[in-house]
């Protein structure tokens, strides 16, 4: 018996006619899904590996991947939104989720739940985080929190040992200044990055002062006193020699590439990022990284939060939402795929996935898990997604903070300028 060669069959006019006669499509075509994310070399390697495996496991569906660095991702996405050609699946962060829901760029997933999308094993906290106004929009890839990553060798050389003279889960800015100066004296390396222009650190500080970053009416929460105090604390660390010089730190304002972190370049002993970035940062250096929370005020009011590190969302431009949501479902549930992703995007929100990953965790991933164990009960409540305009406020903070680092204007003047601009941004958003 000869084998039926469908491709050869379709190459002939008679073959096409025969298929049509039987009511079959003249040309079969794979279902196409485009996935777009912001990444780095480590994340891109893992995600393309997932896509390759998914395609091999899912005949008839072809997923293609697109990636850019964080700084270019949202610019490209804005262009795609305007052109009506967004990919099917996009990566989103909690901080901008509401904005993309508000402008209709991402659509609810509710109609696909229990069909192409399985969320039965996803933590309820993750489901709640992706739900806005009663509709489920965003599938959590993993949990995340702010993390201070520090070079354990440099800390040890300065005589600083976690659990003895350093509490990674409860230290103050005064402690940070003391340790930063000690590290600089012992090693010649600045003890800490200068977070004057770091909006994530600022947002934690606002909560530590008992305020909200955004009030319930969408207005901006920080006061003049809070902004001034934050910048003054970092000026004090800078003046004490615990950080790099202001001019050098100014050149790094707004830079999000892991390769530019002070702890990676060797310019500082401590850098600040999201906890899911520890694995990527560790892959760029030889010294071992350890983890701590962000510094706090003496009152120790929680400031950091636990939130989804990133989501995958379905866009309004998806031409095949069933295929796209099936891919999204596998991305967070399939142990073969999640085994490739590991913890690079955060702690998985599926309990079965966490259990499957545990035996094979790398040293850096084990540090991340231990960090999450340590911060339990020490974090603030997750606030609702920020209002439209929040991203522009963050960019404004980074821009005006440079003048503080350079000493161009008094802190009080820059703080007033920042708050006036922020209020105007939110008012017109």
From TrEMBL:
SUPFAM superfamilies the UniProt entry points to: Periplasmic binding protein-like II
Record InterPro entries: Bact_solute-bd_prot1 (IPR050490), SBP (IPR006059), TAT_signal (IPR006311)
Top-level division of the source organism's lineage: Bacteria
Keyword Signal: yes
Gene3D superfamilies documented for this protein: Periplasmic binding protein-like II
A GO CC term attached to the entry: periplasmic space
Compartments where located: Periplasm
Broad class of where this protein is predominantly found: periplasm
Keyword list, A-Z: Periplasm, Signal
Signal peptide: 1-28
Signal as UniProt keyword: yes
Similarity field: Belongs to the bacterial solute-binding protein 1 family.
Name under which the protein is recorded: Extracellular solute-binding protein
Protein source organism: Devosia litorisediminis
